[in-house]
Structures
1.
Amino acid sequence: MYKLIATDCDGTILDSEGFLPEEIIRVFRKLNDMGIHILPVTGRNDIIARDYIDELDIGCPVIGCNGATLVNFSTGERFFTRSIDKASVIRFMDICKSFDTPCKIFTTDTQYTNSRVLYEGGINLITVGYKKKMTYSIETILVEDIYSVADKDNIIKCVVVNNDVDFVLRVRDAINREIPELKAVQSNWNCIDINRRDVSKGAAVLDYAKMLNIKAEEIIAFGDSENDLSMIEAAGLGVAVGNADDCLKKRADMICDTNDNLGVAKVLREIYNI
């Protein structure tokens, strides 16, 4: 019996308009009542995912920023924060400068950017088509010199957004090639997330499972994007939703229905016979 369900949010359990369907909520609450642990795992800052945690209302923790943080908002407990060192942040900024591209820098409670477009557009530049209005957000600060942010405490994620997919992937590859301390992955078609090399969704899920004395083979993981790959591979059962990127589908143990067709809920109802 699987004891822990780790799931990505955007594109996986959220529908294309950014809502958490009632069927997903019902299934997760039922499994929680059965003693199955539910763990949302997101590339977002954990605070920006809090709306969905509140909707689930089961007291579960959430992994944020691709595995850089683990927090339980119900208890106020922050289990870990895995920050990027200053030298690596500066080298990332150097690459952005060489590509003449702006970026975002995230701490645990603030995001900084040197682009007015990114400042004004916020997460809506990535979650295109979302209609849900969010209650929680983090402070966004527009800076003229992005290097001035490098001294901030608890920098946990950097982001590059550009609607030219080929350009975004070139930036991703340059970071992975030139900064061995960092790892850049595609989290959306127009976005790459950059974390510390040892930070990933998969590593964070396994760390949380260890706290619960749950083995890797007792975990189910669901995802849709490249930043979910580590989690899919770490779990005993890795499931890609039908709308997932090809790179994830090729490595998953199973492909289910799409996020808009409640693929995650369908799989869980079948596995747990609920």
2.
Amino acid sequence: MARPIDNSKIRELVQSQVQQPQTQNRAVESGPSFGDVLQSQLGLKVSGHAQTRMKSRGIELGESDWNRIRSGVDRAAQKGSRDSLVMIDDIALVVSVKNRTVITAVSQDQLKENVFTNIDSAVFV
């Protein structure tokens, strides 16, 4: 039969953790996320992946750009599209039309030699 390990340092560590009250780390409230504001204003969501890509690729879109994108998504929905490539100026967005969610974003610099798969339509706005 195995004997428990008797180590005084481990015992001290365990006892100190039991005696100290546990504190919870709480996230700092910073208000609604970009995606939440966008969805409430324009009826579009931006996935975490798309937010990361937009930030890393320096893609910044203004309110008028988002209005154009929403219009393009609306047009794609009217035609029965499920997943669409929405081109706005020199930026490509892959959007789940059904979920009204921007899946990813690519700027003109990354457009060369890219292949977009799993889309059933393209909208130029």
